[in-house]
Amino acid sequence: MEYVTHDSRICCIDGNGNEVGTILFPKREGNVYEITSTKVDPSMQGKGIAAGLMRHCLNEISRRRGTVQATCSYAQNYLAKHGLRPLVICHMVTSIDGRVTGKFLSGSAGVQASEAYYDYHRAMQGDAFACGRVTMESSFTGGFKPDLSEFAGADLPHEDYIARKHGYYAVSFDRHGSVGWQDGILHDEDPGYDDCHIIEVLSEDTPAEMLAYYRKIGVSYLFAGREDIEIKTALQKLYALFGIRVLLLEGGSIINGAFLRAGCVDKISQVIAPVIADQNDKPLFSDAGMTEFRMTSCETTEQGAVRIWYEA
Ligand SMILES: NC(=O)c1ccc[n+]([C@@H]2O[C@H](COP(=O)([O-])OP(=O)(O)OC[C@H]3O[C@@H](n4cnc5c(N)ncnc54)[C@H](OP(=O)(O)O)[C@@H]3O)[C@@H](O)[C@H]2O)c1
């Protein structure tokens, strides 16, 4: 199935080129999009087409930074069940054989592809980028561990904490509150990562001392599970509490796999370096089952890499 987006309509086209479903979402005042109708050809009902139309429609409204209003009953029921979450674009640089770690990244082909990757990151202008705990520590904090002695005996409830609202966010998926940030704002030489407000996504397994530390340095945090992080819950909170509409998921392998298994990877932006990696390097999605995507565009970059867009 292919989903084709027009101004206020998305159509589902089957393998024979027939239109088998349509969703209408006219724009109203104040950048509000009203979902007025979801229709699927009777012969094609029960194949997930209406849900596919809804997902594409919500992603498109997120991409336009619009507000969703639903007046058709199918859309109302879908929203009651699934809620609203950001459009998730998994943006990664890989080897030819789909690896994302290891020494291929520091060879000349990897470095050049990484330059293209950072250019694309800036051009996509997400509202936030997100990484797993390991990547946040290796790329941004250097594994710093704060002295928590002044917070001994802290007693804080498991309530979401918004230190500030900001135009751009770095979202850290960190089950146990381990990442040692030193400030609520991330400073980086690359303007694509500079001046982000940090949001820690935690489980309730996080020590109260760390919550007190995050509050002191101005890091926001939210809870998305008891011991593990439920990706959908986290995304719904990022949408509702911080207004994040477009999230760039930027690795590593483990957190990408968790998003994929939760059905929360909408698009993939893959920048491929012309190199085969070592066999022990990690894949784009760890612990992934077979999941079909559709390639929507492909281009070669000035740096000699290939950039491919896929969508779910
Ligand atoms: N090629 C690229 O574009 C690219 C991009 C980014 C990173 N990387 C590379 O990727 C490597 C790191 O990747 P990685 O796969 O080892 O780690 P990762 O995905 O960065 O982080 C994984 C960690 O995230 C935490 N986590 C939070 N919520 C989770 C959930 N629901 N399910 C699973 N884990 C969750 C877990 O740590 P806790 O249990 O402590 O919470 C887990 O160990 C680095 O070498 C980095 O350089 C490459």
List keywords for this structure.
globular, 312 residues, four-stranded antiparallel β-sheet, Dihydrofolate Reductase, subunit A, Aminopeptidase, binds NADP nicotinamide-adenine-dinucleotide phosphate, 17 strands, ten-stranded mixed β-sheet, alpha/beta
Can you lay out the helices and strands and say which pair or pack?
Elements (H helix, E strand, L loop, with lengths): L1 E4 L3 E5 L5 E6 L2 E2 L3 E4 L1 E4 L8 H15 L3 E4 L2 H10 L4 E8 L13 H17 L3 E5 H9 L27 E5 L11 E2 L9 E7 L5 H10 L2 E4 L7 H12 L3 E4 L3 H9 L5 E6 L21 E7 L5 E6 L1
Parallel strand pairs: 5-7, 8-14, 8-15, 9-10, 9-14, 10-12, 12-13
Antiparallel strand pairs: 1-2, 2-3, 3-6, 4-5, 11-12, 15-17, 16-17
NADP nicotinamide-adenine-dinucleotide phosphate (NAP) binds next to strand 8, strand 9, helix 4 and helix 7.
Briefly summarize what is shown.
By secondary structure, this protein is α/β, with parallel strands linked by helices.
Shape: globular
The Rg value, from CA coordinates, equals 20 Å
> What amount of the residues lies in strands?
25-35%
The level 1 CATH classification of the largest domain is Alpha Beta
Helix/strand structural class: alpha/beta
Q: Could you tell me how far the N terminus lies from the C terminus, measured between alpha carbons in angstroms? A: 10 Å
| CATH fold call of the largest domain | Dihydrofolate Reductase, subunit A
